[in-house]
Predict the 3D structure of the following.
Amino acid sequence: MCVIAFLVTLVSLASAQPKCCTVDQWEALESVTIAIEEPGSPPQITNVGLTLHYDGTNERIAAEETVTAGGQISDVTVIQDYAQKTQYTITDIGCTKKKIASFKKACVPSDATLMGNYYFGSGNTTLNITAYQATIDKAHVTLAVTTTGCYPIEEVKINSPSSVGGTENVNYVNVTDGIRDPSVFTPPSSCDSAPYRDNGGLAISYDGTNQKVAVSESVTVGNTSTNVMVIQDYTKATQYLIINNNCTKTTLGAFKKACVPDEATFVGMYYFGGKANNLAFSAYQVQAQELQVQFGVTVDGCYPVEEIVTGRTGTTDLVETYNYVNITDGIKDPSVFTPPSSCNSAPFKYVKVWNFWTTRILSPMAGSDWANEIRLSIVIPFKSTNVCEVDVLHKE
């Protein structure tokens, strides 16, 4: 799944004294084409078609998107309600929410450079446009708006890093004033009970040499926070699950090293950053039981960067996103693998064990009472070396 950030240039760079701003309310059809290029390889193309609804008066934006990438088609609705400081992402799997920052009006930034005034058409049938250039995150951006009204026409973003190059082209057509149906900004009822996972994260210690994994997670749902720690000691075939200092033990199967599996399908080559500072990564997807997992690892070192999981776990719909940050080699404090004393007398319970990445999902043990447990996603790095630690930003 890929959710394209709409109005990237106009909104994100709005300034105190912009060149011009759009009207307060408008709608448009938007097409986005992203081409990622690597020397010696054909470009990887992602196409997005969306209907965009912009309401500056009430500080909200909505878009219904169809994303085509790697032969896969996904329908996504995104609603950004800045009054509530909440973004809703709705797919056929369900709804997720996250907090967003303050609203920025759709304007051409003050530091944009005027390229010139032009027009479409000929004779008595013309439309005057004004073109600007700007630098965004070290990328070169060209944008065009109507001379009268500042309606968006086109944005072109070009990155030319040494290893991977890319172009993003955005076109706006059929722009109309006003909002025809304000209900486009109303999230479905499935979003009412969808949890926020803002500021939630996992701290992971992975020791392939000694076959141990430790995960520390703080889960915030509404105003309630739960501290969860998982220690997996494969030499003892035991998982320790500690929730708010209460310990439960579970029998583990055999250890599996964290690797990109042979059956994973290569999706394409992409990068984070801009021309002067970028990181290339390879994207893959794999089917794991009822779940589809899309993930990216760095070209150099096979470090994980992102993972998106969609599907069902039992009767529960699932949409989860993970971003991997602050990875360091080695284990700073080996005591992270030592369970607390409360685990010494803790009983064994047969629950479903999740090594939450691709084919590392283990089957439930007989007599599972997994439904009575807090579902914890244990994300393990895809690194080729034996020991590392990582923070994971988890959004559900």
Summary: Residues 8-12 form the longest helix (5 residues). The helical segments are 8-12. The domain at 201-395 is CATH 2.50.20 (outer membrane lipoprotein receptor (LolB), chain A). The chain is about 0% helix and 55% strand.
